[in-house]
Amino acid sequence: MHAKKILSAALTAALLLSGTCTTCLPQTTSYAKEKDSIHFSTGLGYYESMGFKSTQISSLKVPKGCGAELCSKDSKENGALAVSDPKTAKIQAMHQNMGWIIYGLKTGKARLNYKDGTKSGSLDLEVLPELKLKALKKSVKVKNGKLSLTIKYQNNSDTDIVIEGANINSAHILFAGEKEPSKEEAELAPERWIEKKTTIPAGKTKSITFTCQAEKSGKVQKFDYPSVYFKYHGVYFSIIINNSSLKNHVTSYHDTMPLLEYCK
What we know:
This protein is mainly beta.
């Protein structure tokens, strides 16, 4: 699913305009320290050859209970990735040697070490406190050529969370008379981010309205919760926040890259 989203998003790129719907090119390839002979990337880094920009990092951070994708164009089928402290995180191999998913088990720090016959590399790993963010309710309206999607979020995490925007296409808004897209068509929808920077204090709830130009008109018959881009413990993630727990969900990790930079 993530590969399809990245492939489709690569077809259309534009600058993000504050308060408007925008399609942008993801920049999810992130590299480890140059001294390592293997480069790690978050997201689907093996698509770098298609023109995705990369950002050097020195660590991977993931909330306790969540997962993050880790890939490398340098990895081999006989290579192995191991975590220095199995009690801190666990590793799940992805299909056809496409990479790994790193799940945070307990808060703390560890190392991710890769080794095959000719290459090796390591990456700092930190498991952050559990991300306790839920969406309590949602609503949408179309009026005067504007589409407004309102979500009420509850932040029960140990720190404030800064929401920077929402991907309106991930809400899969369906108007009356429209045929519901297939699962594949929905996954291929390009990202369209609406920038709306809002802080949700720890232990508080807040409603956020994401507004943009409506591309269609009529009554909305169906819609879902969107993916949101947010800052948590000093780093950025994006994931669909709904009314269920985020335990075992896989987030997209964006290191210290704010939404506006992500969409350049």
